[in-house]
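Here we describe the complex-level prediction in full. Unlike the single-chain runs in Section 2.1, the four entities below were treated as one system.
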Amino acid sequence: MSGSRGWETDKRASFYSLDRWLRHARRYRGFHEPSVELHLNLIYTYGVVASHFARRLSAKRLSLSAGNVLMILRESENKGRPLHEIGELLLVSRANITALVDSLERRGLLERVGQEGDRRVRIARITKAGEALLESILPGHYAEIRRIYTVMSSKEKILLSRLLTKLRNNVQRSIESDRERGENT
Amino acid sequence: MSGSRGWETDKRASFYSLDRWLRHARRYRGFHEPSVELHLNLIYTYGVVASHFARRLSAKRLSLSAGNVLMILRESENKGRPLHEIGELLLVSRANITALVDSLERRGLLERVGQEGDRRVRIARITKAGEALLESILPGHYAEIRRIYTVMSSKEKILLSRLLTKLRNNVQRSIESDRERGENT
DNA sequence: TATTGTTATACTCTATAACTATA
DNA sequence: TATAGTTATAGAGTATAACAATA
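The structure predicted for the assembly as a whole is:
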């Protein structure tokens, strides 16, 4: 980004290495070094991975979210998906999924059709053009995923998946109890 | 988000469980199930964790990036940091760090000062108000980090940190070789 | 010539509220 | 009353390009 060359990888690595933080952070009762280090690593690694794939997708003029919409719709095949379901799957609000679907529909990558039986609902369905676009992306996409994760064994991948899932479920539980507490106050 | 109640956790969990993808995905030569599953878990888990902390910070009218700027500046104490360095650490371009620092300066949380010796450079330095704001946030922040990661042992945390670091380094290497290839074409 | 910071622009994403049409 | 979708709006993030001041 920003067109600068020497990517300052060393500077960032030492920044995120946590040593620098300890002087201030140790003052806090709750501070727990392995947890904070893992937290920073999760955030930092996600950023690098996500921007790598976002850059690859941008060559096809797709954002990560837009790519995910097409993936969901291809998986649903010609049945399509109601817009609110797409939003739920991607953690995007109903209001915002409208704009996302709009932009993909304008490009002819999906179409909206009505649902018989409930006239409130609109179904988004992938078009031939949308499928063709995915076909041009996915071979390289899956190959790149495979490539970047070669730094771990399959056993490590499975363990890591399991730990991330446990973490996620724990956070979701606490989000829900936050909300309940918020609603009763 | 979107004010809906029953967060559809089950629907999303089964969506990200990968089973649904296999029918299409197996067609691709590069497809490697444990890698793709881990990739989805990384993205999905980051989303849940990041939005949890973003919501907590928003109570103090700070974005994640804005909070990170203050953390960097507190760590630098009264020496402060040149704007371009902050941008490098946070993966934000020089153009965009200007707006971020602007908004924090308007609120009196940091100040810009000149650097003697190089009059191009401007240093951002945290103010007393900025430090006070951090002090009001960090005890709860560190406690919450500790809390959400209780689902793993310290040994697992260290292993996970190590694997994420290896992954990140690998992606950064490939970003750099992409760039070199791009520049020579 | 290169670097630092700024301004400007455009697009995406997120969050909220209010509206409609249906159920 | 609740749900599905839309419209509108505002703030934040990201990506580029062009520019002034300085090195």
